[in-house]
Write a structure and sequence with these properties.
about 120 residues, single chain, Rossmann fold, 5 helices, alpha/beta, 4 strands, 4-stranded parallel sheet
Length: about 120
């Protein structure tokens, strides 16, 4: 297994934990995804979605992913992060220091913030 697949599988497992803890019949889970990159799907985001599907979380069935992309316009990150916080997702997903910092500033508690950068580098 290559490093990126391992990280994605590990990350999906970490993400699944808070979702599974609150699992109820017919519950639809909400994930807030903040990216500073473009909206074009990357191989890693496709692999992440595939891994979530393998764990039983299927977008459009029991999972809603609210995606916000800054398209390298970093000044938009605080606005996009605040928008995601207003949607009240079960868990946030962000990679990179700028994205994580924007989400941390936008949340009052930091609950549900999955720190991809730190998880991938520990």
């Amino acid at each position: 297994m290559d490093r990126s697949r391992f990280l994605l599988t590990s990350l999906a497992g970490v993400l699944a934990a808070p979702l599974a803890a609150a699992q109820q019949a017919a519950k639809v889970y909400r994930l807030g995804w903040l990216s500073d990159g473009p909206q074009t799907p990357s191989p890693m985001s496709v692999a992440f979605a595939d891994t979530l599907r393998e764990l039983g979380y299927v977008e459009g069935r029991n999972l809603v992913i609210d995606r916000r992309y800054a398209a390298f316009n970093y000044d938009r990150l605080p606005e996009l992060a605040a928008d995601l916080v207003r949607l009240n997702p079960d868990v946030f997903l962000a990679g990179g220091n700028l994205n994580i910092a924007a989400l941390k500033r936008a949340t009052t508690t930091g609950d549900g913030l999955l720190d991809l950068y730190m998880a991938a580098n520990q």
